[in-house]
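TL;DR need structure tokens for one chain.
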Amino acid sequence: MHGLIGQLRTTPGGRGEVVAALVEGARDMPGNLVYLVAEDAEDPTSIWVTEVWETEAAHRASLDLPSVRAAIARARPHLTGMGTRVVTRPVASLGA
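>> reply
TL;DR here they are.
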């Protein structure tokens, strides 16, 4: 398995639009096991995305999906940059 945890930084007031774009664009991504979008509880301009993929290649392939490319285009005007990014190797999942 291949995992990613990444922080996206948004414009003030733009977080909701980015969350909506990410959620819409993440539907039906082959090889994706988990795609969790979370608002930072302390920073109103930060979003955390946690992803688990069957393989790293599945993640790379997702970036070429029309739905993902459209989500990136929709979110881009509201993004100010990336924060922390971590690659992980998931070993267990508990719960839904």
